Structure formats: C-alpha cells, structure tokens
Amino acid sequence: MAKKILIVDDEPFLREIVAAQLKAEGYDIVQATDGLEGLEKAKKENPDLIILDIMLPKMNGYEICGALKSDSKYNNIPIILFSAKAQEQDKNLGEKVGADAYITKLFGSKELVTKVKELIG
C-alpha cells in the first residue's frame, strides 16, 4: 500500500508540482490550501508524512507543526517545513516547534523528494 503524504500550501501551482513529483514516486497525495484545513486533514487522514508551508492563511505552519507535535496521537508523523523563508531564525523556529526537516523552496523539489524518501521510504 502506498504511503500517504499531506501537502499543505496555499500556492496551487507549487502544490501541484510537488504532488505530481511525489505521485510519480508512488505516494498517495492529500492536499490542503490553508492552515486550518491542513490541521483538520492531518488529524482526519493520519498521513505518513506532512509537507507544510509556513506562510499560510488562517493558521501558519509553525502553529500547525507545534499543535501536531505536542499531541501524542500525531507527534510521530514526520513534518517537513517547505518554505520560501530562508533565514536562520526561520529554521531555528522550525526546530523549536518540532519539524523533522526544513527545506527552502528556492532549492526546489528534488531535495524535497530525497528528504521524503529518507524519512518514510
């Protein structure tokens, strides 16, 4: 059975590119377009991994990551923060809220696919 990945990003074009690349690698993809929907789908779908943008409407990625990582039902789900924010302080905040990885969108999705395989196979 294919592993399920939740992609939470408010940019449709980017979300579709990442989804297409991961589908090509054999993963099932679930998508959410804002933070609140992302948190709800994370709890409902119980994905194997979450790719999470930081700058989202309704609830930001740090808040979602912190909420999931502090809940014993969901804290085992690996979370990759995938953001255009490339400052050291952004990465440090990602670590603080429990993210398993932080990848800058500038480096693109090849690094993202590699990290997904590293975290869940």
How would you portray this structure in words?
- By secondary structure, this protein is α/β, with parallel strands linked by helices.
- It has a single domain (4-120), classed as 3-Layer(aba) Sandwich (Rossmann fold).
- It is 45% helix and 19% strand.
- It contains five helices and five strands.
- The protein has helices at residues 12-24, 35-45, 61-69, 88-96, 109-120; strands at residues 4-8, 28-32, 49-52, 79-83, 101-104.
- The protein has a five-stranded parallel β-sheet with strand order 2-1-3-4-5, with helices on both faces.
- The longest helix has 13 residues, at 12-24.
- The chain starts with a strand and ends with a helix.
- The mean pLDDT is 93.
Number of strands: 5
Mean pLDDT: 93
Estimate nothing, just give the exact number of structural domains. 1
Which H/E pattern describes the elements? Answer: EHEHEHEHEH
CATH level-4 homologous superfamily: Response regulator
**Count of helix runs:** 5
Given the helix and strand composition, which structural class is it? alpha/beta
Helix content: 40-55%
Strands of the biggest beta sheet: in what spatial order? 2-1-3-4-5
Output the CATH class name: Alpha Beta
Main sheet specs: 5 strands, parallel
Which consecutive residue ranges, at least 5 long each, have pLDDT under 50?
Answer: none
What is the subunit arrangement here?
single chain
The CATH architecture classification is 3-Layer(aba) Sandwich
Rg measurement, Å? 13 Å
